[in-house]
Amino acid sequence: MRSRLAPIVRASLLVGAVALLPVTTAGLAAVDSRATPQIGRLLTVWQLIKANYVEPVDDEKIEKGAIEGMLSALDPHSSYLEGASLQRLDTMIDGSYSGLGLSVALDDGAVKVVSPMRGSPAEKVGVKAGDYITHLDGKLIYGSDLDDAVAQMRGEAGTSIRLTIFRPGRDEPFDVTVTRGVIDLEPVTWKLDGTLGVITVNEFSRDVGNDVNRAIQAMKRDSGGKLSGLVLDLRSNPGGSLDEAVALSDLFLDHGDIVSQRGRIVSENAYYRAETVFRGDAAKGLPVVVLIDAGSASASEIVAGALQDQHRALVMGERSFGKGSVQSMIRLDRTHAVKLTTARYYTPSGRSVQEGGIEPDIRVPQISDPDARKRAEMSYRESDLRRHLVNEAGLDDKKLETDKQDDPRFKMTAEQLKAKNITDFQLYYALETLRRTSTAPLATAPRAAAPRGK
């Protein structure tokens, strides 16, 4: 991963850190001689389509289909970017657009909500992660192109669109009308709850490490120097720049490794260590709780894994998404690019989070959500995606399902919590844990280091 990369945020699937790799004409032209029969078959099929298909087909359509087919056969995160998909990526990098504020994916032909952006029009009307959008203004979109669906949801601020939603746990679909707004991506927000600070990181875009550092200093000042603990909220954060994940981790660490990445080629192997971005621990002496859930992916998992392995924070919430791969964006020309999986990343102890994700030290379900139980049963993670990379450690799928079982410690209903003005139980539990510990340090149990072999 290179520091000159533009941060990549939400696109059609959860994305992680994306590298921008130079590509030469010679490199593109080089074809392994052993692939000649395969190239021959590809050209034969091309010619058959051109000569025999029931309707005339232009070369661009066949070319695009061939490239998309090759990349989609690899894994869920490798893709071809051109036209609307590349423009959408560039728009997100700019940090502002008009629309609903949704991160969506295509799941077996259905448009599935990965996560609504915090404070977005979609979140305000109650759209939730895991929802399926079946119709837009009454028009069925099942089986349609994801870019077409996204284009329909985008539009001028102030205009409205009606979404028909199927939500696991509900018997019938329902409609919500959302008024589009200007989505200014705000990566970091913070607030004080007495002497406790809550920092919410919504995505890992440019300057997140510096933004969090400024938030800590502001909270120390506004609390009159009495800041007694921090909650770092990474829930529903689908990732972004690896460099910013390293910077945020380094903000809380003064020694040791943060993350490593290993690929098939030597140039993709790298180790990232503390004290390379920030000196010292910006929250030294303060207990820290990191909140994660099934929507915390990639860069979020890097931070949670680093602070957990280095015993700097207590990780709380629900098992994370499990995306342990790095994508490189290779520009073919000004209007075409390939996003290709080129490496896996590992936590300081050598753990790969691919498939399994980060397991919290204390599992806390979001029982303030009335649909929590059903949503847990239908949770959507990397291991549910077709052709996902398999964890080299060979995880037991049954063990990964334990987080879908009820926890007898958390029996209160959403209605009972609402009566107590508790609308976010996970955050409430994290703050109460910090209050109980006061100035006592929070630390996780030591983890055995996994082999560093490839």
How would you describe what is shown here?
The protein is of the alpha+beta class and 454 residues long. It folds into 2 domains: 100-184, Pdz3 Domain; 188-328 and 343-437, 2-enoyl-CoA Hydratase, Chain A, domain 1. Helix content is 28%, strand content 23%. The chain is built from 13 helices and 20 strands. It has helices at residues 25-29, 36-52, 59-72, 84-94, 121-124, 146-153, 208-222, 242-252, 299-309, 372-377, 397-400, 414-419, 425-437, and strands at 18-21, 79-82, 96-99, 102-107, 110-116, 132-136, 139-140, 160-166, 174-179, 181-184, 188-193, 196-201, 229-233, 257-263, 270-273, 288-292, 314-317, 325-331, 336-346, 362-363. Strands 1, 2, 14, 15, 18 and 19 form a 6-stranded mixed β-sheet that branches. Helix 7 packs parallel to helix 8. The longest helix is centred in the first third of the chain and has 17 residues, at 36-52.
Using brief descriptors, characterize the structure shown.
single chain; 454 residues; alpha+beta; Pdz3 Domain; 2-enoyl-CoA Hydratase, Chain A, domain 1; six-stranded mixed sheet; six-stranded antiparallel sheet; 20 strands; globular; disordered N terminus
Sum up the overall morphology in one term. globular
Q: Structural class per helix/strand content? A: alpha+beta
- The helical percent reads 25-40%
How many distinct folded domains?
Answer: 2
Helices, by number, come to 13
Task: Give me the count of strands.
Answer: 20
Rg, rounded, reads 23 Å
- What is the name of the CATH architecture of the largest domain? Alpha-Beta Complex
Strand content bin: 15-25%
Low-pLDDT segments: 1-31, 443-454
CATH class of the largest domain: Alpha Beta
Q: Quick check: average pLDDT?
A: 80
CATH topology of the largest domain: 2-enoyl-CoA Hydratase, Chain A, domain 1
Q: Could you state the CATH homologous superfamily of the largest domain? A: 2-enoyl-CoA Hydratase, Chain A, domain 1
Distance between the first and last residues' Cα = 18 Å
Note the main sheet. 6 strands, mixed
